[in-house]
Design a protein that fits this description.
heterodimer, A: mainly alpha, ABC transporter involved in vitamin B12 uptake, BtuC, B: alpha/beta, Rossmann fold, 2 domains, six-stranded mixed β-sheet, five-stranded mixed β-sheet, globular
Chain lengths: ~325, ~325
């Protein structure tokens, strides 16, 4: 029921936030442009009276940006919720096992070396960021693995240590190639602007698929909340679940991060907010986090792209600016 | 035990003495500075061209009295290095930064500054007469250099008129006032000829891309904004506050630039790749094939507020009105 409500709100927000923007285009025209792209309906809609620039702004810039925001917010939040449950650690976020530093490291290498191997319409930097993120997590998991087990504490420590190490190498690259310094810094700040349809289409199917598969593990995650030993005795293959959840979470976040850069805060705060309001049952928590994460992300991006037009703010500033106080309010309210 | 106590007493006395003498020394320097300040107006009046001492003031209001013609100069900014070489002071330049790549000869000089900072020890060791720092420089470094008796000047030119002023100031500080005047009049003459050339041409809408992901343009108050305006263009991003704002793509498409400029700063940034960016296909600059990328030297010239500014203006004017330069 809650999920249906949230889905409805998400769809409404997509519509609402697509209409809002800095370009001077009437709301009705926005809908006409979008409808004119849908097969069957498009026969009944003519947008010949509208300038081509309006069509370009709505169809190739704003709509994919909003949808990418949904995807990025959803995968960060869902992975955050799953990792927090898996590690039983409220400080865990999707970046804790090295995804962000791995991605940033990969992007840095691509920028510094000026490599050009575009593939499937995804930019070189994105490809390297994706490989970097997966590589970092692979290393972290292997360092943390003791025979066939991955103790949570070791995993978190290995994640932090590897992150620091990669960040240090990245800083070294930045010092040695100072002309690329600004580019690296901008990449790590993250943005949803100007990506278009191609990267969105490339990541949407694998992202959504891994989000759906993640929901198969909600029961196991719920049982694991009672402790790994008791979960094991109740017939949950704890280590297997760990690996699956880690791999799925890493996969969906790496794809988002490789396109959007590192957008912080969403993956940490949204799961907590949802948990405070809706409870810790992963059956609700995981999909609800994804939906709320998507809504919050496109709201933050709307503010980022409109508030000081014609300039933009880095969206990470907005997520922290609005998310922080709201989270603190929920935290206090729930403690009373 | 007694011996130890005696030693401790001696050491603490020693420290005390050194501290006090250090303090008094500093006071002495402050007094000297005050004297220089008060004598400022008089010396400006009586000074003859090329004669020392001269009193100069940099962009940040630092006043330095230069007693003798500086024979050993260190430049910590590429634009200042270019000015020094243009004034014929190349052989007096002892040290530069790793960014100082023009003229060719500048690359043969000792590198004592790079991104990570300046080699202050080496600067003091070289004992130059004059150091031109980048921007306002580092306050602590400046103080240390001044304490060592080195004259320190900082320049931050953001516009053509400031560049002209700074060249004159550097000329005055180095005893090359005549050369500076000549250089300035060459720059101004070339600027005027280009402004004259583009006069009467239609104003075209121009966008200069600083970086593409996220999109950043050259906003109001940037060096490029002035170049575009002088070259007969309208910078569509000139209402954005700050020199290098992150720019909204929707606004870019809506304002529809007729000329799209950028520096070739990445291997995969080409005219073709810019044309393929989402939404760009409807832009007049793309339809009319008016995307212009500045490569290597050109990119340096248009981004460096130095004596090659008139060349920078010519490069930008050529990109905006190519028909005038055929």
């Amino acid at each position: 029921m809650v999920l249906l409500g949230l889905s409805a709100i998400l769809i409404l927000s997509i519509g609402f936030f697509s209409v809002l923007g800095t370009a001077d285009i009437r709301s009705i025209d926005v809908f006409r442009i979008v409808l004119s792209k849908i097969p069957i309906i498009k026969r009944h809609i003519s947008i010949e009276d509208l300038p081509a620039s309006h069509e370009a702004i709505i169809w190739t810039i704003r709509l994919p940006r909003v949808l990418l925001g949904v995807l990025v917010g959803a995968s960060l939040s869902m992975a955050g919720a799953a990792f927090q449950g898996l590690f039983k650690n409220p400080m865990a976020d999707p970046y804790v096992i090295g995804i962000s530093s791995g991605a940033a490291f990969g992007a840095t290498i691509a920028i510094v070396l000026g490599i050009n191997i575009s593939f499937l319409n995804i930019s070189t930097i994105s490809i390297f960021a994706f490989i970097g993120a997966l590589g970092a997590v692979f290393i972290v998991i292997n360092i943390a693995r003791v025979s066939h087990k991955i103790p949570t504490t070791t995993l978190l420590l290995a994640g932090i240590a590897t992150s620091q190490f990669l960040t240090a190498i990245m800083s070294l690259f930045m010092v040695m190639n100072s002309k690329d310094l600004a580019k690296i810094v901008y990449w790590t700040m993250g943005t949803l602007a100007g990506k278009g349809w191609k990267p969105l289409v490339s990541i949407s199917i694998p992202s959504i698929t891994s989000m759906i598969i993640m929901n198969f593990f909600v029961k196991d995650l719920n049982i694991m909340l009672t402790g790994e030993e008791s979960a094991q005795s109740m017939g949950v293959d704890v280590e297997k679940v760990k690996i699956y959840v880690l791999v799925l979470g890493t996969f969906m976040v790496s794809m988002s991060v490789s396109i959007s850069g590192i957008i912080g805060f969403v993956g940490l705060i949204i799961p907590h907010m949802v948990r405070i309001v809706l409870g810790a049952d992963h059956k609700i928590l995981l999909p609800a986090s994804a939906l709320v994460g998507g809504i919050f992300m496109i709201f933050a991006d709307l503010v980022a792209r409109t508030v000081i037009s014609p300039m933009e703010l880095p969206v990470g500033i907005i997520t922290a600016l609005f998310g922080g106080p709201f989270f603190l309010y929920l935290l206090r309210a729930s403690k009373r | 035990m007694k011996k130890l106590k005696g030693l401790a007493l001696f050491l603490s006395l020693l420290i005390l003495v050194v501290t006090i003498s250090g303090c008094t020394q500093n006071k002495g320097i402050e007094n000297e500075l005050k004297v220089e300040d008060s004598s400022l107006e008089d010396s400006v009046e009586i000074r003859d061209e090329g004669d020392f001492p001269v009193v100069v003031e940099d962009t940040f209001g630092n006043v330095e009295t230069i007693e003798q013609e500086p024979m050993k100069i260190i430049s910590l900014a590429p634009s200042n290095t270019e000015v020094l070489f243009e004034l014929g002071l190349g052989d007096r330049v002892m040290g530069v930064t790793s960014y100082c790549d023009y003229p060719e000869e500048a690359k043969t000089k000792e590198v004592i500054g790079d991104f990570s900072g300046n080699n202050l020890e080496r600067i003091i060791e070289l004992n130059p007469d004059l150091v031109l720092v980048y921007g306002s420089g580092d306050e602590d470094e400046n103080r240390i250099m001044r304490d060592a008796g080195i004259k320190v000047l900082g320049f931050m030119s953001e516009s053509l008129s400031e560049i002209v002023d700074d060249i004159k100031t550097i000329g005055k500080a180095t005893g090359k006032e005549k050369e500076a005047e000549e250089l300035v009049s060459r720059i101004v003459a070339k600027k005027d000829s280009i402004v004259e050339l583009v006069k009467g041409e239609n104003e075209v809408r121009v966008f200069y891309e600083i970086w593409h992901d996220p999109l950043m343009g050259a906003g109001k108050g940037s060096f490029m904004d002035e170049l575009i305006t002088l070259a007969g263009g309208t910078n569509i991003a000139d209402d954005a506050d700050g020199a290098y704002p992150q720019y909204d793509l929707e606004q870019l498409i809506e304002r529809d630039p007729e000329i799209y400029l950028s520096a070739h700063d990445m291997e995969d940034k080409t005219v073709e790749s810019i044309k393929e960016r989402p939404g760009y296909s409807v832009m007049t600059a793309i339809i009319n094939n008016r995307v212009h990328l500045f490569y290597n030297d050109e990119a340096d010239i248009v981004s460096r507020p130095g004596p090659r500014i008139s060349e920078a203006l010519e490069i930008v004017a050529k990109a905006i009105h190519p028909q005038l330069f055929e």
